[in-house]
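Format is sequence with structure; example below:
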Amino acid sequence: ITSFRMFHIVRIIVMIISAVVTASVLTIFGIIGIQVNKSVQISSYNTKSEIGYNLNLIEDPLYNKDTIEFGDGYVTKFVNDIDLTFQYDFESISATDISGTQSATAVLEAKYNDKDLIWEKEYQIVPQTTFYSKTANAGAKLPIKEYVDFANNLRENSGVTTSVNLTVTYTADTSATIDGQSINETSESSIVIPITGDVFVVGGTPVNEQSKTVEAKVLQELLPKIPVLVSCSIIIFLLLLAIIWLSFFTIGVHESPIEL
């Protein structure tokens, strides 16, 4: 490759780079507009579902709240039933068109070796109801003694020893419109009661709180960035100097038609 061809190739490369950098600067300046869709937070909301419970004991002269102070555990055979309360709250400043449903179930599950499901039985303790506000509530009575007797009778008849848990699940589904955006949310809380032991401790997740944001797609112009702008301007200036230098350097230089 002759010197003339080499300078010509270099000049073309420099001009291409200059064109790319120039287009970038024009874009940054906003002369060449580029609009992008971006998700931005426009609002937020909070949900909370909660199960409250109060144990009602079988009358006993020794095992009662007047004679002893209870801890976290309860003697199973002394518990008659449990009063349950269900509460759901939806918090949002700008929410409209709020509607939802709530329901609660109690499920008995018998497992062998605490892992293999043997049988289960479901009770609908709160039928599905509809609400149109930011709050909802319900109540139910849980007949623990009845469930314990059922599990014990089944164990005696089958001759199989299993561990039986009673799981109460409260579910609230909500739909609403927040600043023009439709949202659908589900909140669940639960309590778990092992009913085949001599003593049980109420476990699970009786309170479930969530905080979420509402986002919307907005069209935004690409904003200029001063450091990038300065850097690109310097590069363009240097590239223009290079083009001028190459053009001056190759004036009067012609490719020889004969190569020896």
